[in-house]
Amino acid sequence: MNILALPRLLVVLVLAIASTACNRPDTASTPPPAAATESPPAIAPGATLDVEGSAFVLRMPDGRVLRGRELEGAVIHVGIDGGQVAPMKLKSITPDPKQPQVLRHEFETSDGQGGWKNACAPNADGETWGLPLKLAPGHPGRDGEITVSCISGVVAKCVRWGYPPWEKGPSGESLAPFHAACVRMARADYCGDGTPHTKQGTSIDNFDDLGIQKRGAADDASYVFEAGWSPQGAACVAHTRWNDVVTLDQLKAQCPRLAAIPHCDENSARALGARMFNHSRLQPTK
């Protein structure tokens, strides 16, 4: 069973990296670059910043490459809503204990008073880390060439649930479509048009046919089949997550393709191409 948080906090396009980039400190207690005994390498014009997996990769014009934790302490400049550019510090970069291939980044932004503050709002567990990733055009979580997501948002959350889009599944299948379907599911983006139909803190019981996520509330009769999910949105919908957000009749009026499906259960959703499935509680109609 999973608890959902809605906001896509700190979703940005990385534009450039500041000259404070440095080699990774040896320990977590090592002072930041400004206090280090060795000067950080100067960043020459023409350096490029990319992402591989969940790691930033800085390629220098002279052939040097700084990757992942080697960029801990760096300050990058990001484009935000409205076309503004703002600095963002990679305060710490550590492997996730359960998924070592995922790097947790503690991002900081300017506090407007010469200091730094957390860029990510805490999730339900108080975590404030996020990660960068590259998502293909058309992916529902994509925000430019590089997307940065906080763990309080669904893009990072679906990585944590076991669907890193750069990884392969147990039989060698790409997890990218599963990650995209997970994002649609987490947002209750039934129509596949980017419109969410859920609420902060809603619990759902989600699963897939790969065995990555399994039914967690199978013995709880209050959880009933809601929908099957593809990268394009809901394959079919048995009931909506919140009737006071959208009823099933209202949804079918909004999405004619869903209205054309006479019955929705796990088997019919699978036949329609669903990669993910979820159960949720039936909410009373007001």
What does this structure look like?
The protein has five helices and 15 strands. A hairpin with a 5-residue loop joins β4 and β5. It has a five-stranded antiparallel sheet. Strands 2-6-7-8-9 form a five-stranded antiparallel sheet, with no helix packed on it. It is α+β, with helices and mostly antiparallel strands and 286 residues long. It is elongated, with a radius of gyration of 21 Å. The two termini are 26 Å apart. 13% of the residues lie in helices and 28% in strands.
Question: How would you describe this structure in keywords?
Answer:
5 helices, 15 strands, five-stranded antiparallel β-sheet, 286 residues, elongated, disordered N terminus, alpha+beta
Largest sheet: 5 strands, antiparallel
Q: Portion of residues in helices?
A: 10-25%
- Main-sheet strand order equals 1-12-15-13-14
What's the multimeric state? single chain
**pLDDT averaged over residues:** 85
Number of strands: 15
Elements, N to C (H/E)? EEEEEEEEEEEHHEEEHHHE
Relative strand content: 25-35%
Give a brief rundown of this model.
This protein has 286 residues and is of the alpha+beta class. It is built from five helices and 15 strands.
Topology (SSEs and partners):
Layout: E1 2-3, E2 13-17, E3 48-52, E4 55-59, E5 65-67, E6 75-79, E7 85-95, E8 103-110, E9 116-118, E10 130-133, E11 147-150, H1 154-160, H2 176-187, E12 203-208, E13 223-230, E14 233-237, H3 248-254, H4 256-259, H5 266-271, E15 276-281
Antiparallel strand pairs: 1-12, 2-6, 3-4, 4-5, 6-7, 7-8, 8-9, 10-11, 12-15, 13-14, 13-15
